[in-house]
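In response to the reviewer comment on reproducibility (Comment 2.3), we provide here a single inverse folding case reported in full, input and output, so that an independent group could reproduce the run without further information from us. The structure tokens appear first.
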């Protein structure tokens, strides 16, 4: 069994002696507080033992539901926002063929995402596209009341029923929501949709290994048992009784906090595989919503490399020295493509002839790492043997535990998100939602000076 590895050696020159060691005890205590449920936000730590609690029967039930959707749909729209879509998107893109949506030969349905914005153009273009499609919908919302998702679902439900008939719509609409509360639950029960429950004690951004992520991933044709197996194995090697020297989640939490305390306020997650773009987005929510509160928190930023070396590279190399970089480094490519010979050699690249493209990518990665270190950017490497379901499962769980520990080191409750309510309050007041009369009056007065 191989594991993803953590290389923190290129943070050492940037930290005072013993800075990480000083946090070792605290990181292990934070890991223990997750275990014994004494941490802040302890009513939301159901994700901690989630992987090892997933049974073969549960995976079979998800695969069975996915089969119904796959057999009856050429397109599946996943309606959800934040933790109710980012994890599924991250895994589907990481494991998929970058051009599957263009070359689709009908083996797998196309997976589209909605309910993550309120753009009229986006929704109009999507509903127009869906007119020709045998589509189904997975409606995902823990609260069951999120405006973006509810709005998209109302449109999609109506279109699906009109296009495919009520009976078929009932077959190809699935709800993933709270067991009892919220409009998504009420609708699912009333219409008789197949539904899955998001456990009360698992917050949205930690929910990718619940049906929230597993069902869309299975619908896309990927092996969720392997994904879960990877997470289960990572659960074991990041457990509360694993010593610091072997516990990469505790190490990651400690080193990023040591860097934060030394003035590095921004963490840039970088990848050298465009397929990991949405993994960056998932990670940004995980760490941003968990740690950014009370005037504190490492700002999670992300880049795709080498792409963004030609846009953000200058800043990273030479801008304000308040950043550190965490690179997801994939050791082995899934395909083999050799650099071809060119008789004329007009581009002068014959010196690369016969080399694998991945070797060139690796040299770009190493060269960039050294340049950034020379430029004053501490570097953490997360090394994945390959980009497959098993290691993606490991990566997800590694980041989740790292986050649960790290938030405690920053001394915030990593499992709430009170700040996201403020925009909603203003939006509802501006839209004159019933029940918001006072807020509407106040916001209008404010806008009218
Ligand atoms: O699943 P829900 O309840 O629709 O919430 C979606 C997202 O919105 C938030 O609650 C923030 O408003 C996130 O924490 C969550 O992932």
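Designed residues, in position order:
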């Amino acid at each position: 069994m191989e594991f993803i590895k953590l290389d923190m050696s290129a943070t050492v020159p940037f930290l005072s002696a013993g800075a990480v060691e000083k946090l070792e005890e605290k990181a292990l205590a934070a890991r223990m507080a997750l275990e014994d449920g004494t941490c802040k936000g302890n009513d939301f730590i159901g994700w901690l033992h989630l992987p090892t609690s997933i049974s073969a029967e549960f995976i079979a039930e998800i695969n069975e539901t996915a089969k119904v959707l796959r057999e009856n749909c050429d397109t599946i729209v996943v309606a959800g926002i934040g933790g109710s879509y980012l994890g599924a998107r991250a895994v589907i893109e990481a494991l998929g063929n970058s051009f599957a949506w263009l070359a689709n030969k009908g083996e797998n349905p196309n997976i589209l995402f909605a309910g993550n914005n309120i753009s009229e153009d986006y929704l109009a273009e999507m509903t127009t596209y869906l007119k020709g499609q045998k589509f189904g919908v997975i409606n995902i919302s823990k609260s069951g009341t999120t405006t973006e998702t509810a709005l998209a679902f109302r449109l999609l439900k109506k279109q699906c029923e009109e296009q495919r008939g009520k009976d078929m719509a009932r077959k190809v609409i699935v709800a993933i929501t709270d067991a009892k509360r919220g409009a998504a639950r009420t609708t699912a029960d009333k219409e008789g949709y197949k539904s899955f429950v998001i456990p009360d004690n698992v917050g949205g951004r930690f929910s990718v290994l619940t049906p929230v992520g597993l069902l869309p991933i299975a619908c896309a044709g990927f092996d969720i048992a392997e994904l879960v197996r990877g997470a289960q194995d990572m659960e074991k090697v990041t457990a509360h009784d694993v010593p610091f020297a072997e516990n990469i989640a505790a190490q990651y939490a400690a080193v990023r906090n040591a860097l934060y305390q030394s003035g590095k306020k921004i963490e840039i997650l970088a990848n050298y595989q465009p397929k990991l773009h949405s993994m960056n987005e998932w990670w940004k929510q995980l760490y941003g919503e968990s740690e950014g509160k009370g005037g504190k928190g490492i700002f999670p930023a992300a880049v795709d490399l080498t792409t963004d070396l030609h846009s953000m590279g200058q800043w990273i190399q030479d801008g304000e020295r308040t950043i550190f970089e965490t690179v997801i480094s994939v050791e082995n490519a899934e395909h083999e493509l050799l650099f071809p010979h060119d008789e004329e050699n007009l581009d002068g690249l014959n010196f690369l002839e016969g080399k694998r493209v991945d070797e060139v990518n690796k040299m770009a990665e190493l060269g960039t790492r050294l340049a950034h270190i020379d430029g004053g950017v501490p570097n953490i490497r997360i090394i994945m043997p390959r980009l497959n379901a098993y290691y993606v499962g490991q990566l997800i769980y590694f980041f989740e535990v790292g986050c649960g520990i790290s938030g405690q080191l920053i001394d915030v409750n990593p499992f709430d998100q009170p700040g996201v309510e403020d925009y909603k309050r203003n939006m509802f007041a501006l839209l004159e939602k019933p029940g918001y009369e006072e807020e509407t009056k106040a916001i209008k007065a404010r806008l009218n000076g």
